[in-house]
Specification:
alpha/beta; 11 helices
């Protein structure tokens, strides 16, 4: 069955899939193609043997935890790709589906450069609400098990990198150090004038937003004057959230770093992601295409499930901790 077409939707609790600069699209195309071409030729290669094997006829993924743990014990460089599902168990709203509204708007109506240009007050109310909400949320067992695994394996000369679509910083809160946030962070701002990017954990982020941002449909816009919205400390320009909005290009430096990690990892985990939002949906299949074990941890199967070695259904906070726990072969100094 051919893969589904790219779906330009937000990955659950953060809007972030967008149009891409042609150069980045071409790089992503080459990145994908050079991993798939060997399989294509393997599938088309003529042979007279009755043992002929078509490489893209793939077996169903295994749910055998013992087999996964064997692969885990041997891995030296583990890449963990995470999506909204890993944070949903911390009570983070997804802003998707029938209940995925803030007031009367869906996230994709607010998370665009055009929406910010039209009504920066409304967009800042939306992000202020999300920032304040996240200050009250905590990492769940999935976040914690990933961070603990990274810390433990680093003492053994092994590495773990987390490539996340989430903008909530719960991985950082849990203690993850090697983190690539491909869609940015709720707790960073970028100046629309000078471009300066700064961490910002102020609550509220500016006095005018105090008590604003309630999500109820009957609440009216605050209509905050633009001069009272968050301003740059360097040049007094208008600040915006440092997140990737619909219609914007992902950071090419981060994509390059992601490519490097995916080229060198010898085990990949896909945790709490729908595998339908691009370019992140390409990451794990690319790893699988070069013969590296990929394990999916998700509530349900995804369009990419059959391309992976393992699939573990259920809440990530339940399935992931035993998968990443210390293996009996590990030597802790």
């Amino acid at each position: 069955m051919p893969p589904p077409p790219p779906q330009l939707l937000s990955p659950s609790h953060q809007p972030s899939c967008r149009r891409y600069h042609p150069g980045i699209l071409m790089n992503l195309f080459h990145f994908t193609t050079r991993r798939l071409v060997s399989q294509v030729y393997c599938g088309l290669k003529p042979t007279s043997s009755k043992k002929q094997r078509i490489c893209f006829d793939m077996a169903r993924p295994s749910s055998n935890m013992a087999d996964f743990r064997e692969a885990f014990a041997k891995a030296k460089h583990i890449a963990i790709i995470t999506g909204a599902g890993v944070s949903a168990e911390s009570g983070v709203p997804t802003f998707r589906g029938a209940g995925g509204y803030w007031r009367k708007w869906q996230a994709q109506e607010l998370a665009t450069p055009e929406a910010f240009a039209r009504n920066p007050s409304r967009v800042w109310e939306f992000y202020h609400y999300r920032r304040e909400l996240m200050l009250s949320k905590h990492p769940n067992p999935a976040h914690i098990s990933i961070a603990e695994c990274e810390a433990r394996l680093s003492k053994q000369g092994r590495s773990v990198v987390v490539i996340t679509q989430n903008i909530d910083e719960l991985h950082r809160k849990a203690g993850t150090k090697h983190l690539l946030e491909i869609h940015g962070s709720l707790f960073k701002t970028r100046c629309t004038s000078c471009g300066n990017v700064t961490e910002n954990y102020k609550s509220p982020i500016c006095p005018a937003l105090a008590g604003k941002g309630a999500p109820d449909p009957e609440v009216k816009d605050a209509g905050i004057p633009v001069e009272d919205l968050p301003r740059c400390e360097n040049c007094n320009g208008l600040l915006r959230p440092h997140v990737v909005w619909f219609g914007e290009t992902l950071d090419s430096d981060i994509l390059t770093a992601v490519e490097k990690e995916l080229e060198t990892c010898d085990l990949c985990l896909v945790v709490g992601t729908s595998s339908i939002v691009y370019p992140a949906a390409m990451f794990a299949p690319q790893v699988s295409a070069r013969g590296v074990p990929v394990a999916e941890f998700n509530m349900e199967s995804t369009p990419a499930t059959d391309q992976f070695s393992f699939h573990f259904a259920g809440p990530c906070g339940t399935t992931l901790p035993p998968a990443l726990a210390r293996h009996e072969t590990e030597i802790i100094s």
